Amino acid sequence: MMEYEFRYSEENAKGLIEMWKGDDCLARMTYSRLDPNNIIVDHTAVHPKAKGTGAGKRIVMEMVEWARKNHQKVLPICPFAKAIIEKHPETHDILRK
User: Fold this and answer.
1) 3-class secondary structure, 15
2) How far is CA 18 from CA 1, 87, 89, 96, in A?
């Protein structure tokens, strides 16, 4: 199984989650903070060489776990992230109502 490293950064209410394998950034997701407990996921991008590997789904699921651990609710306006979350009812607990 592939080992990934996830890197997180946030500055001025803008956040970034990146998925790395060695020296290669395979996927990234951006979000905006609404308040201390709510974020809007606005974009998910997968590097062309990682397309078809499940990297996109993997970064979405990592964000779900991060949101749970950090008591965040998520409004996914990114069509890709929204579609993955909709297909997985077990992730719906993080959705902002």
Assistant:
1) strand
2) 19, 22, 24, 22
Strands 38-46 and 73-76: parallel
Residue 57 lies in domain: 5-94
Output DSSP code: residue 78: S
Q: What are the CA-CA distances from residue 13 to residues 20, 31, 37, 53, 95 (Å)?
A: 23, 8, 12, 30, 19
Per run of 10 residues, the mean pLDDT along the chain (length 97 residues) is: 87 97 96 97 97 95 97 98 97 95
How many domains is the chain built from? 1
pTM summary value:
0.94
Closest by CA position to 29, among listed 90, 80, 96, 72: 80
* Other Cβ atoms within 10 Å of 80 Cβ, number: 18
- What per-residue confidence (pLDDT) applies to 2? 59
Which CATH number belongs to the domain containing residue 17 in this structure? 3.40.630.30
